[in-house]
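Q: what does this look like with tryptophanyl-5'AMP bound?
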Amino acid sequence: MRVVSGIQPTGNLHLGNYLGAIKNWVAMQDAMAGGDTCLFFLADLHALTQPVVAADMAANTIEMAATLLACGIDPDRSILFNQARVAAHSELAWLLGGTARVGWLNRMTQWKDKAGKNREGQSIGLFTYPVLQAADVLVYQATHVPVGDDQKQHLELARDIAAKFNTDFAVDLFTLPEPYISPAAPRIMSLRDGTAKMSKSDPSDASRINLVDSDDLIAQKLKRAKTDPEPLPDTPAGLENRPEARNLVTIFAALSGRTPADVLREHAGQGFGAFKPVLTDLAVATLAPIRERLTAMLTDRESVGVVLRNGAEKARSLAAPTLLAAQQAIGLQV
Ligand code: TYM
């Protein structure tokens, strides 16, 4: 098993990232057997598709790396690095640019959402973003890619690119990666709108719980989280057309490692006035220790930098043979 996944080092890690992806990274790392490798990276090159403040780039990368370490990524067992330090990602992305089709990229919902009506004014990087993402996983022959549900389409594209490359150049080079989407928390929604995903780019900080939020702030955000006046139903079917209620039950279930059905069996009939304080205790119990580890880690940023540089060196040696094989398949090695 070869596990590969990435996260953009922009803004703070939020509960959606944690429950939808990072918790699974740690679980997969902890379940590794001999011969398995996990690679996790800060997608700093992908972050260039948004406006860049050069002075903040390095600090953001170190802070996100420290957050992953605080969440349980162990650099003795997993390879943790930043994408920009492993040139093979960019080199393979260019080679795959000959394989990927404009029509495929035009269908990406993230591109359509982010570009809106102003496609002509977007950076080329925002459009070709999923090709770099394909290179990120294909360069390591990833078998499993733990992500939230919003990345599924990008992973399907990576499979299409891999299959077309293998066919076009008559090679059996790229492994087709499987997205691994957490069944417990495929998609965590905004606390202000149960139909929009919890996101770093939402202008309202009240829409998300950040991993750095204090206990009081977590309590305040959950107290103000949008709900409806009905009590909790006794089965998940009763959450239909109640997106905010469903979201809080999903968060409760994912935090407590139980199914929504179990949570509802226990809390059926309760109003949100009673449910929210229990949810708050649960969120604080999970997040406070992460926040404390993160604060301690940020007192020694240089050590985090060393972890990333060591990780990049290991990643470079794992990526090299696949990049070489791709160049050979195309006839670029003279
Ligand atoms: P990013 O940085 O937006 O998010 C990191 C991870 O968090 C998941 N996620 C969520 N899961 C559930 N509910 C939510 N509200 C939520 N918000 C975010 C994302 O699905 C993701 O798994 N393009 C990627 C980064 C990337 C990548 C890769 C991922 C670059 N190369 C290669 C996997 C493999 C991104 O922007 O994720």
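The pocket of tryptophanyl-5'AMP is lined by residues 5-8, 16-17, 20-21, 43, 46, 133, 136-137, 145, 147-148, 150-151, 185, 187-188, 197-199 (CB under 6 Å). Residues 232 and 238 are 8 Å apart (CA to CA).
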